[in-house]
Amino acid sequence: MLRGLSAAHHQRGEEGTKDELVYARLFTAIIEHRLQPGMKLPEDALTESFEVSRTVIRKALQRLALERLVTILPKRGATVAKPTIAEAKNIFAARQLIEVGTLDQVVQNIRPSDIAELREIARQEHEAQHARDHRQAIKLSGQFHVRLLSIAGNDDLTDFLVRLVSRSSLIIAVYGSSWSADGKCDSHDALIALLEAGDAAQAKTWMSQHLKEVESALDMSPEEDSEPDFKKIFSEMES
Amino acid sequence: MLRGLSAAHHQRGEEGTKDELVYARLFTAIIEHRLQPGMKLPEDALTESFEVSRTVIRKALQRLALERLVTILPKRGATVAKPTIAEAKNIFAARQLIEVGTLDQVVQNIRPSDIAELREIARQEHEAQHARDHRQAIKLSGQFHVRLLSIAGNDDLTDFLVRLVSRSSLIIAVYGSSWSADGKCDSHDALIALLEAGDAAQAKTWMSQHLKEVESALDMSPEEDSEPDFKKIFSEMES
DNA sequence: GATGGAAATAACGTATACAATATATAAATA
DNA sequence: TATTTATATATTGTATACGTTATTTCCATC
């Protein structure tokens, strides 16, 4: 079973080192919106929190940066990444391609135990939604999508989706003002039924629709808070 | 223009640090088969080659490890990654999904200048093939695929493909015993013609076929050199 | 009061030292 | 001679120190 959402397949024996723990803690904190996009992540402060040296902190931050969950600017340190609207669209487009495109294989490979696991995740999802625990709900929703794709049996695609889903979580943090856990209570259940029936075609249209809905629930109106675009402002002025 | 095959989009201002140079040199050496799969990459030895401290070397190696071009085993150091047959199949399956699935968008976005650039890469590819320069030919072939996908305008997918293509290069190093630059001299040209004609459907079938051909040109017979599978050996014995 | 610049402070990039662990070598035993 | 065990060596994991660069603070000036 996947621990949290964390990277799908570690290299043999990658556990046991301190940076793994730091990485995992930071990863979870970001995914769960405990650390919000734009927040600074100074190495010294983290050093004190985790009681390890900067060497270890830096390794974890660099990994998160490669996964685009944090942004590192030279000599200016790390911050929690803040996806732009363009990035958000790319990420959902990529998810469409991957998640819809692999469903044939998923339907072909799926076993009863897989369905049971998916149902269990969906159940926990309902639980979190009813408890209004957005953090947990978002995390579990992501787990569902990742677990589903893992059935296709392609570790590389699964790994890629883990990153896309992680970043989706950041996107929700930035643009999900109107994010509601309602209206999606039984959403994943419908898919499970289709999978159980072996109806790949309908599962694909369902998934495509689902991702579209998630995306359009976001408020991606032209960004306001970002730095004012003087070039545009002045080009729009007459005289 | 993409510098070599190197990662498609760097974070703003990621240049200028030493580890970038080390990373780029190692990346290129691996892609070009100057460092072959399985080769050890001891930190001290690299320290002397690059005349930087282990800190810098380690950062570069860790990045390459996350991109799966090198394998790091705890306390045992880094080696150039040696993709298994299963990995190879996953990588080509992922490439099919991504490269075929984005061609509609590519055809929709493509501009004359893009076509010109693709033609230029194809030309250099021919040149390298005629000169029997396999290293350069493989590298340019990868560049072609990446440049093509970049037209779709999805940086995340492009980035993912960069990694898949890099690893494809490793796969060729391991399983491409019968690799011949012949018979593919005009292969990419045919695609360019289809793109220019705006024929997305045919471009897709072409691409699918092309990737299949590349894959089946590999010799992925059951691996021999790997560690002896005692379980299998003894279960096959009678008495 | 607002602006510009210089000093002070804080944060990061890199090198290096030491500790912990794996590998290799050599000795000992069967 | 083959196998095992103990020691030595080599290599990686982590901490820390120092130099460099960005940011902040403060003061002079307009």
From TrEMBL, chains A, B:
Taxonomic placement: Bacteria, Pseudomonadati, Pseudomonadota, Betaproteobacteria, Neisseriales
Key words of the record: DNA-binding, Transcription, Transcription regulation
Highest taxon, organism lineage: Bacteria
Organism, as annotated: Pseudogulbenkiania subflava DSM 22618
Name this protein carries in UniProt: Transcriptional regulator, GntR family
Cited InterPro entries: GntR_C, TF_FadR/GntR_C, Tscrpt_reg_HTH_GntR, WH-like_DNA-bd_sf, WH_DNA-bd_sf
Molecular function GO terms recorded: DNA binding; DNA-binding transcription factor activity
UniProt cross-references to CDD domains, sorted A to Z: WHTH_GntR
Keyword Transcription: yes
Ranges where the HTH gntR-type domain occurs: 16-83
